[in-house]
Design a protein that fits this description.
The complex is a heterodimer of chains A (384) and B (332).
Chain A lengths: L13 E5 L11 E7 L2 E8 L7 H5 L4 H8 L7 H16 L5 H30 L2 H22 L8 E2 L2 E2 L7 H27 L1 H7 L7 H6 L5 H4 L29 H24 L19 E7 L2 E10 L2 E8 L1 H13 L4 H9 L5 H4 L4 E4 L4 E4 L1
Helix pairs in contact in A: 2-3, 4-5, 4-10, 4-12, 5-6, 6-10, 11-12
Chain B lengths: L2 H22 L2 H13 L9 H11 L11 H22 L12 H21 L23 E2 L2 H16 L1 H14 L4 H11 L6 H17 L24 H27 L9 H21 L6 H23 L1
Helix pairs in contact in B: 1-10, 2-3, 2-11, 3-10, 4-5, 4-10, 5-6, 7-8, 7-9, 7-12, 8-10, 9-10, 9-12, 10-11
The chains are: A alpha+beta (384), B mainly alpha (332).
Chain lengths: 384, 332
């Protein structure tokens, strides 16, 4: 499927700017839509109002402290950040992780994917104007949030990982495993009902079919990542390459059309796969300790680590000097998807433009970190 | 007309207005609490909150100057709209039928049109901080299309209000002409009289089709979901109402509640033959229809996403065609 319209080369007459505060945006961003009779011909999305300089704060901190700080990068994917940051250190320091800890990390990662996808669907429904779908999805999501709170201790900032394993409070006992099993059963039933209702609603389908479509070629050109990439039909999921996921059987879901419908369905269909992984992890949960404390700090070169998080590929890198973090870089999936978001808006009606942005599952709070420093007297520009 | 008749008529008019206001403040609460909140499996607001307590609260809020080139005119518009909606109710009362052409369907349509035009004025006079006025460095080196004319999101809603006037409100007006065609008169007195003799128009084939078209037309006029193109949360947010605060926002809340009642009252007048009159037990039917309208609209809104033009135009066109069929059926 192709977008209806491409960027026109003619002079664009009208600009409708929105944000940085807008009811359709969960986070602050500026969206400039260039329109002809309410049809978007070009778009520009700018972030930068929520920059907190976390990498700068990490600079010089002890590795353990820096890792725990990465959890604060994002409320939605806090576990992913601390997991990848710990993986970075573990890779550099060559630490072996106990198998039980790996499984608990996987369970937390998949629970996070579940809540992120359900949040995405609820927010998408809200932007679509379907408040009832949105409310019901938030109810379904509550089960996942409670499970995250049970294991991680919080509904937000529930990161489980520490260097060498997982936090002691994240140990899974019989009661927790029972609750996890019940939660997955409930979730599977409810998401099935929702999916059935969703695809049968003609009004919803007419709003989302063929809107904000991205082709495979466009997705490659724009370096799209995560479920948004898979919604175009490209089967790329980093979980296939992650050794942590090797013991687990799951399918990589793809769609063909790359439009809003495909993106929404992508998340709906990925939920049962995550449930499948969690069930396998519970069933095959190895016995043993959950933390390996026998490791030594040493200096390293730049260490790089990639993992697949709910929105796509997450990158963390830093080097360790005297037990402290240096040159930390975090690249979230949303930064690579910004171009896709702008592109998806083109050819849509203004009302659909915010939905076209939302279809790429933006998380600008964790993305907002690249800052351009302009040394004015010398006109020298440096991007950090 | 003797003095006692004049006094009774005055009492009837004032009494009907009081009842209309008293009922209308509960209608948004019925929509939100009893229907939408139940469908969405949540507690919802107190029933008095959306239509009654919220306006009272807003009357005691601090008045600040809106971001408008003509703030006084902009702030006056909700009150003007409230007066227009009240006038529509007034002309449908039987005590006003002596006004002749002013108590006709032409006057009702004219007043409804003025009510719609008000949204255009509101939208074009609002310049909120949520779009162009946001202090954000848009036009910097490397930015796209820095020469483009910049438009406020309220201006987009103004254009949509114009589309509603030009096209969107067709179904409602077509439906209003079904009783006119059946009674062969534009005067409300004749339409009511026709139904008292021949039974309600609602119980005829043309009447049923007309009633359906009228209901959809009412939803469009009220900008209820899925027809809320003028105040879509995804782009123009509150549209023309965006900058209203304190007592001016209270007027918009009261107007909306009253407009639901007025459209229901107009329906009972045109399709059932019962005009709003406190001295007649028929007022209970008017109140019942207002509540039924609110419930049906809330159900429709709860189960549908907001339309864009891609869905809006075909629905309006199909409903208008249905309305035309109703008029044709009324001649058979």
């Amino acid at each position: 499927m192709d977008n209806n319209n491409k960027v026109t080369t003619q002079v664009i007459e009208t600009e409708v700017p929105m944000g940085t505060i807008h009811s359709a945006a969960l986070e602050p961003y500026r969206l400039r839509l260039f329109v002809e009779d309410e049809i978007v011909r070009d778009a520009e999305l700018t972030i930068g109002v929520n920059h907190r300089g976390i990498e700068r704060i990490m600079e010089g901190l002890p590795v353990e402290k820096a890792n725990s700080l990465t959890e604060k990068i994002c409320g939605i994917c806090s576990n992913s950040h601390i997991w990848n940051s710990c993986l970075t250190a573990e890779k550099g320091l060559e630490i072996d992780i106990p198998p039980r800890a790996e499984y608990i990390r996987i369970i937390m990662g998949e629970l996070e994917r579940l809540h992120s996808h359900l949040l995405y669907l609820a927010h998408g429904s809200e932007v679509l104007g379907h408040e009832t779908f949105s409310m019901r999805l938030f109810y379904i999501r509550e089960t996942v949030m409670e499970l995250l709170r049970m294991i991680g201790g919080n509904r937000v900032q529930y990161g489980a990982s520490i260097i060498g394993g997982v936090r002691p409070r994240c140990e899974l006992d019989e009661m927790r495993i029972q609750k996890l099993t019940e939660g997955m059963d409930y979730l599977e039933e409810k998401i099935g009902e929702f999916a059935d209702r969703f695809v049968r609603d003609p009004m919803v389908i007419s709003r989302i079919s063929g809107i904000g479509a991205i082709t495979k070629a466009d997705a490659r050109r724009l370096a799209t990542t995560g479920p948004t990439l898979r919604a175009t039909g490209i089967e790329v999921d980093l979980r296939r390459d992650m050794e942590q996921y090797e013991p687990f059987e799951f399918d990589v879901i793809t769609q063909d059309t790359g439009d809003i419908k495909a993106n929404l369905l992508m998340r709906v269909l990925e939920i049962p796969e995550s449930i499948k992984i969690i069930r396998q992890a519970i069933k095959d949960l190895p016995e043993g300790k959950i933390t390996n404390r026998s490791w030594e700090m040493q200096d390293t070169d730049i260490i790089r680590s990639y993992i697949e998080v709910p929105r796509g590929k997450l990158y963390h890198s830093y080097k360790i000097e005297d037990g402290r973090v240096r040159n930390s870089i975090v690249r979230t999936p949303s930064i690579t998807n910004i171009n896709t978001m702008e592109f998806a808006c083109i050819g849509t009606h203004i009302t659909d433009a915010q939905l076209a942005v939302v279809q790429c599952d933006p998380c600008f709070t964790c993305t907002d970190r690249a800052v351009q420093i302009v040394d004015h007297p010398l006109k020298k520009i440096k991007t950090v | 007309m003797d003095t006692s008749m004049i006094i009774i008529s005055l009492i009837a008019v004032i009494g009907t207005l009081i009842v209309a206001f008293a009922v209308s403040v509960w209608l948004p609460g019925i929509e939100r609490k009893f229907v939408q909140a139940r469908i969405q499996q949540r507690v919802g607001p107190p029933i008095s909150s959306p239509g009654f307590m919220a306006p009272i609260k807003f009357f005691f809020k601090q008045v600040m100057s809106p971001n408008s080139p003509m703030p006084k005119l902009y702030n006056a518009l909700p009150l003007v709209t409230l007066i227009i909606v009240t006038l529509i109710l007034l002309v449908t009362m039987p005590q006003m039928y002596f006004l002749g052409a002013f108590a006709s369907i032409i006057a009702v349509v004219g007043l409804l049109k003025i009510e719609e035009i008000m949204y255009m004025f509101m939208g074009s006079l609002s310049k909120s901080v949520l779009s162009v006025n946001m202090p954000f460095p848009d036009r910097v080196k490397g930015a796209k299309h820095i020469d483009a004319t910049r438009s406020f999101i309220e201006e987009v809603s103004t254009l949509r209000a114009f589309r509603l006037i030009a096209f969107g409100s067709f179904p409602l007006y077509i439906a209003l002409f079904v009783p006119v065609a059946m009674a062969k008169s534009i005067y409300l007195a004749d339409i009511v009289g026709y139904q008292q003799l021949n039974g309600p128009i609602l119980f005829t084939v043309a009447g049923v089709i007309g009633a359906i078209v009228y209901f959809i037309g009412s939803m469009i006029l009220l900008n209820e979901y899925p027809f809320a193109i003028m105040k879509t949360k995804a782009d123009v947010i509150e549209g023309p109402y965006l900058e209203y605060m304190s007592k001016y926002r209270a007027y918009t809340y009261i107007t909306r509640g009253l407009l639901i009642f007025v459209l229901a009252s107009l329906f009972t007048t045109m399709f059932i033959g019962i005009p709003p009159n406190i001295l007649s037990p028929g007022i209970l039917i008017t109140i019942a229809v207002a509540i039924i309208f609110s419930i049906l609209m809330a159900v429709m809104s709860a189960f549908s996403p907001v339309f864009t033009f891609r869905q809006f135009y075909p629905v309006v066109a199909a409903t208008s065609i249905l309305g035309v069929l109703a008029i044709v059926a009324s001649f058979l």
